[in-house]
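Notes continue from the previous slide.

Worked example: a multi-chain complex. Inputs as given:
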Amino acid sequence: MAEKEKQNIAVLLEEKRVFNPPEDLVRNSNVKKWMDEHGIKSYEELLEKAKDIEWFWAEVAKDVVEWYEPYKKVLEWNPPYAEWFVGAKYNIVHDALDKHMETDVKDKVAYIFEGEPGDTKQLTYHDLYVEVNKLANALKELGIKKGDRVGIYLPMIPELPIAMLACAKIGAIHSVVFSGFSALALRDRINDCEAKAVITCDSFYRRGNKVALKKQADEALEDAPSVEHCIVYRRTGDEVPWNEGRDLWWHDIVKDQPEECETEKMDANDPLYFLYTSGTTGKPKGIIHRHGGYAVGIATTLKWVFDLKKNDVWWCAADVGWVTGHSYIVYAPLILGVTSVIYEGAPNYPEPDRWWEIIEKYKVSVLYTSPTSIRLFMRYGEEWVNKHNLSSLRLLGSVGEPINPEAWIWYHKNIGKEKCPIMDTWWQTETGHFLITPLPITPLKPGSATKPFPGIQADVFDENGKSITNAGGNLVILKPWPGMLKGLYKAPERYKETYWSKFKDVYLAGDVARKDEDGYFWIQGRADDVLNVSGHRIGNSEVESALVSHPKVAEAAVVGKPHELKGEAIVAFVALKSGVEPSEELKKELREHVGVQMGKIARPDEIWFVNDLPKTRSGKIMRRVIRAKALGQDVGDTSTLANPEAVEEISKAV
Ligand code: WTA
């Protein structure tokens, strides 16, 4: 094990500090109120009672969703498939928008938007409702129907949630592709789901520059036969290439649309969206989420964990292109009727205090971000933070990767001024909502995501499926949960194999974790060949395929290496085709090539040229051996290697 990794684990093992929640926070919390109403006296009793998962989720559902027609059964569990609220008629947009038109939420601000150049816009729930209805009507007019897929390739502007909600409203399935992904990544995803339309914009602002998104979308659409229309929102007013007949301006198609649009009454288990995420093979997985159970899961977790009330200003500083944004910028906050902030640009633009300025300006009361961002701000130093009044903050959150205790303490002290508890929420694209997370009533240990949310049963198993304490093992979830994925689009075998084959009827998360003597979970990272770079999942094999698609590359192996800021850095070992000379220039070219294939976030931090890569006799590249060698660790058993000399190549390279 690398020295650094050893140190990290040692720190985690030694971390004994406990932070008790402030008394007034506990007393006034949403969860405490619910416990009082249900005669539950303690956190332990709550967890115990919620072990009756059908009772628990049906009970909390009453507070957050309104069905068109009631369900007949809370849960139908045919492993590995779960259906929640079976038989209910429902549409998540009813709870996110329609129901608010009958209450005073109607005129409340739903989104405060701040563009990177400083332009701002506020949309009330009613404004949002109208915008969504108009676009939904326009989509219908273009022939998009229930069950059709729509690709959405938009930056962090309010039109992204509007586009998602418009699809959901008419029963179409949205598949959002992160705007930082490349044209080719977009093409793969829209082709996999056979999108009928794509929604994008001219360009957007990022770090003082403009990113020409439409141009990238055009490149993707050169080979996307299912796409009939490309709808373009005008964000910057830049000139864009135009394909007559296929391309349509957003403002043109919504202009004459009625402000009302009937919401499609769906089955609670009908798909709401697909979201592609990285797995262990080169092809991303299309995770399927549904309307009903998902709504109950996301709204309940947000209401309890971040304790959102009428007057809160919520800022989930993730990108809507990832699941965090889907669940906690778009659907859950809208269901709860709260006000959210959406910021378009880079966190350190024009200066490293942009976020603190935004918090002060809009009196943000709850901030949810990633350890990578926290470490970035740590590096800039407290002086940038101290220029601003952050006294509006009352709770903080973290997601996406393990938070090291040092970053936790810095966040707690400098941003939360030692009065805001930090909710370290563990979950995945597949889970839809938080599964292991503190509540405002939970004593916190820095670096631990604490305990499973009520109604969730998690454990750590050794390789034989035995529950273990105080040792690293496989993180597993024992019972289904309401936001559980429906499956993988067009890949049922992969679904079973990835999550359900290691232990019978138990969900394998793919993370390594440790459970301590108090039942607190400490997540240590991915167990499989998936990298976690700045909280974003990137498959090793996806980067390898991207490298190998370069004409000068014969073979490639990609491993992760601990990185101070990003959590993990991408390190690539590349064997070139014969006759190709290695050079620094070529390294640059390969980095750019990966950027074009996948997107900037997937570009390797380090590239090393080797003659050969360690392989098994069946020709499989042994990443485990390469990783160990690259990190200076013990390589373990190499008896299955066909070419032991290649191992030495790796050590010579690094
Ligand atoms: C990691 C993001 C430690 C984990 C919501 C998981 C975390 C993967 C945490 C999912 C956390 C997420 N502590 N690790 N609080 N939250 N992870 O699908 O490895 O983009 O499996 O979902 O991120 O990443 P995904």
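Summary box: The pocket of WTA is lined by residues 277, 322-324, 399-402, 424-429, 449, 509-511, 523, 526, 532, 537 (CB under 6 Å). The longest helix spans residues 125-141.
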